[in-house]
């Protein structure tokens, strides 16, 4: 067989296969799939929804944990105010008005739990770092704002409203 005959036979065979396929499966445009972006769009919506729910969930958990921390701080402050375990000892006399121990030799009021010298009018003492400490609660006191700070957690509370003060 010559080369042009073979080309004619193969082109005829291809033509018949195309006609048969068109007859069985429909026209060429009906057989071809149209590439659409619908699956990508739906996938993007699903990913965005999952990320959004993750952010909302994380914000809820963080807010809940902060609320618990704040409530613990307020409760600890109230408990510290209500308990005052001062006892006289070793030659120190308990002052009836303040509940502090009075050292007659040095003419000072002393907190027996910390050993800090206390001002009986304000019930505040200075710790070795120079911070004012309320001897009844063992919390740091800020005279400028009147707020108390828990030394364990660092949470600051306004004692007048019993609310947590947000740090700036």
TrEMBL record:
Assigned keywords, A-Z: Membrane, Transmembrane, Transmembrane helix
Keyword Membrane: yes
Membrane-spanning segments: 41-65
Domain of life of the native organism: Bacteria
Name of this protein: OCRE domain-containing protein
Higher taxonomy: Bacteria, Bacillati, Actinomycetota, Actinomycetes, Micrococcales
